[in-house]
Structure formats: structure tokens, C-alpha cells
Amino acid sequence: MRYTCSAIFLIVFVLMAAMISELPAQQTADVKNKRIGTAAATELLIPVGARDLAMGGASIATTLGADAIYWNPAGLGRIEAAAEGLFSSMAYIGDIRVNYGAVAVGFGDFGSVGVSLKAMDFGDIPLTTNDDPEGRFGRTFSPNFMVFGLSYARAFTDAITAGGTLKLVSEQIGRVNGSAVALDIGVQYHNVAGFQGLHLGVVLKNLGPQMSFDGTGLLRRATSSDGRRPEQFYKSVPASFELPSSVEIGLAWSRSLNEAVNYTVSGAFANNNLGLDGYRVGGEVIYSMGKAKLFARGGAEMSPKGADDAQIFGPTFGVGLFYSTVGVDITIDYAYRSVQYFENNSMFTLKLSF
Fold first, then answer.
1. Which residues form the domain of 59?
2. One-letter-per-residue 3-state SS of 88-142
3. Would 86 disulfide with which of 47, 262, 288, 351, CB 3.0-4.6 Å?
4. If phi over 0 gives left and psi between -120 and 50 gives alpha, with beta otherwise, what is residue 199?
């Protein structure tokens, strides 16, 4: 009975994702999406975790543990240790650094719980004003962008796990701030229909109301055109903007060549409401030797685009090392992503499993 209910849940979830993916987003003619560039909180789209980034983001069917919180929260339900701590740092574009930390804990039959925090470091930016257009006074400012997440996942059967992440988005530049709430919901189905090594993943990302903005920085001194009121402050009413929601569906095939070598080949499709759709491919080879494992990974994302569309991110590559010690397992991952127009991205991830 438990298996039947889980299968029904999976079918309903996949059908819901398929219907959402059909919502108007991109025009098929010349693949021009006139809504590109209108999304708020685009920091939600910045990837974290070197393992899955190195595989091009195609691993939504196999990601697990603390790594899965960003990519597919259902994978949190497959945590292989009692607890995991993860820290990731990436040199992004334009001297921006993205730092990310997550903690995941398994509670047996209750499921797994995780908390995460993504913070962007913009450095000190020269402050220019009408009185100091060249910033000669030496004043600086730094935007403050953060995403806090609370995740929960559990296994319904040995094959099916489901999970979700509630995210609080906060942006602040000077005296203006923005806030939003977003939700990720995901499912993983391993060994689909009894086929060993065939895995399916589905995730709906960044579902939520529009992002709103507020703050004293929106006040403007002006004189009313109606009546005889003196000059005073009036508040500019800012527009709200939609979050960059998406539906992602992925498949993976995992096999063993021998006792020491295993490999996984993954593919995924991402339907984005305010961006180009993406087709992702990736793979991972694992070489085991006693208490240690070596990883080699690669991937890419391709987007059908018109003459006016651009995809600045190119192929990804990465390596990793796992070593088991008494009481703690240590994993170090590195990912490299080529970028057009800017410096290439480099990401390091350290994970401790207890």
C-alpha cells in the first residue's frame, strides 16, 4: 500500500510539472523570450556545490545529501551519513564571489532536515553622487544579497524520495531593500520500474509571489503640484517583479565497470519562465581504492536561442577526492566553468560527513 501511494504521488507530481512547463514563457519563433531580463532575485539561479556544477547541473536525478539542497531537495532524503556540513565558494563574474554553507541531518524514519545560506560578496564599490561624480571622496558601499533555506526530505520507499526547500530572499543596496519567499519541490525515483541503475528526478524551483521593494532610499523631496503644501518627502512606489521559476526533469544511468570503477551519465531539461530553456548533459567516473575515492566529472548546458539571445556559460569540468577517516569522511570537490566575456568560474567545495 505504501508503494502504491508513493507511485501515485510521483505520477501526479510529474503531470503537474509537465503542465507548468507548458505555461507561456518562451516564444518558439526564433526562440526569443521577451521576458528575459525581467526577473527579480536572479541570485537564486547561481549554482552552488562543485560536484553537481562540474556535471553541468544535469545530476538532479542522482544528487544527494547536503549537495542536493540547491539542485533537487529530494536528494536530501538520501543522505548517507548521520550529518553533513558543506561549504562552497565560487569566483563568479565581475569580481563577485558567491559563498554557500549548508548543514544536513538525518532523523531516521522522520526524514532529513537541512539549513542553507547563500551570500554574495560584491566587495567595496566606489560611491558616486551628483556632488562627487568621480568618487574622489573615497566613500564606498557594498550590496548585501542573501538567500536562507530550510529544507525537509524523506524516503517514501527504497526507490522514491521527495523534499522541499523554503527560501527567504533578502537584497539590500544602500537604503533600499527587497524581499521574497520562494519554494522548491522535488522528487527522485531510483531504479525506475525495476531497471537497476536508471534514475529519474523532477524539481520545481523558485515558486512564489513577486518580489517587493521598500526602504527610505525611495523617498524623494518634491513640491506637490496640487495645493499649497510646502516641499516635502514623497515615496516612489517601486514595481514588483516575478521570480525566475523553472521546471527541471532529469534522467541518469549508473553502472559499474568493475569493483573499483563506477560511472554515471546524466541528462536534464530545464524549462525557465523568464530565461532560455536549457538542455544539460553530464557524467561522473568514480575510482575507489580502499578508504579513498577519486572523481572525474564533466558537463555542459545548451540553449536553443535566436540571434538576439546569449548563453555566456560554457562547458564544465571538475575533480574530487573522498577520504574516510575515523569518525568523519572528508570530500573536496573542484569545478571549472568556462564563461564568455568574463573570467571563467572556479568553485571549491568542502564537505564533512559524520
1. 2-132+139-210+245-353
2. EEEECCCCCEEEEEEEEEECHHHCEEEEEEEEEECCCEECCCCCCCCCCCCCEEC
3. 351
4. beta
Number of compact structural domains in the chain: 1
**Does residue 221 lie within any of the structural domains?**
no
What's the one-letter identity of residue 80? E
Q: Are 291 and 276 in contact (CB under 8 A)?
A: no
Give the pTM: 0.86
Beta strand 345-353 pairing with 329-339: antiparallel
Query: Does 229 reside within a domain?
Result: no
Q: For residue 241, what is the DSSP state?
A: B
Residue appearing with cell numbers 524549462: 271
Q: In angstroms, rounded to a whole number, what is the distance separating the alpha carbons of residues 268 and 254?
A: 15
Residue 116 is placed in which grid cell? Answer: 542553507
User: Which pLDDT score is estimated for 274?
Assistant: 83
- Is the pLDDT confidence value at 291 over 50? yes
